[in-house]
Amino acid sequence: MHSTFQKVSKIVGIKPSNFRPLPTSDATGFALSPNVVHMAMKDDVASGLVPTYLCATMGTTGCCAVDPIEGLGLVAKEYGVWLHVDTAYAGSAYIRPKFRHYLDGVELANSVSFNPHEWVLTNMDYCCLWVKSPSSLQDSLSNNAEFLSNNASETKGVIDYKDWHVALSRRFRADQTPSAGCDCSNKTDETTSIYRELCKLRFVLNLYLP
Ligand SMILES: Cc1ncc(COP(=O)(O)O)c(C=O)c1O
């Protein structure tokens, strides 16, 4: 688990004593065990606490440990907690078909993030966030000051990304994804296939450009 999640939990008002960094070991390649998470949640419920959020990491920054998403997803489902899959560091690797099996169970996640600026040679700071139900974010974060009112938002002609995150005035970075106009003729099969996937990613992201 990355240090930013500990920081964020402080920001949203979770007492540090209610934040659960759980042990991992060599035996699981330092991946989080669904059994360990299950036991921790069971104990918390028994002491009157309400488990709310589980962060699985696919590629930790320290040693690139990959958590088993499917098993953790089933535990998250049982306890009704939000499952976030953090692939910030290594998510770009899942573009490669040979690594895709690590994503098995990702359909159980409520949100997934990855940072192309880590391995996809884009500029800082570029984080892709996928959310299963954007309305959960909108219900928590939307507010409407008079100076923000505009026809496009009111007629739902645009997506108001200010309602998806904390900041108000930040640019939308999808257009940083490498240009689709690359000549692959001198590249190896492997780089060509990665590049093709990146071009598809750029296409998908561009669909969401306002
Ligand atoms: C695994 C992991 N999670 C989260 C983060 C934090 O991402 P951000 O800088 O977009 O907040 C990083 C690192 O930079 C990371 O490597």
Automatic annotation (TrEMBL):
TM regions (residue ranges): none
GO biological process, one term: carboxylic acid metabolic process
One GO term describing the cellular component: cytoplasm
Presence of keyword Lyase: yes
Protein name as it appears in the record: Tyrosine decarboxylase 1-like protein
InterPro entries: Aromatic_deC (IPR010977), PyrdxlP-dep_de-COase (IPR002129), PyrdxlP-dep_Trfase (IPR015424), PyrdxlP-dep_Trfase_major (IPR015421)
Keywords per UniProt: Decarboxylase, Lyase, Pyridoxal phosphate
GO MF term list: carboxy-lyase activity; pyridoxal phosphate binding
Family (UniProt): Belongs to the group II decarboxylase family.
Organism name: Cinnamomum micranthum f. kanehirae
Pfam family, one: Pyridoxal_deC
Requisite cofactors: pyridoxal 5'-phosphate
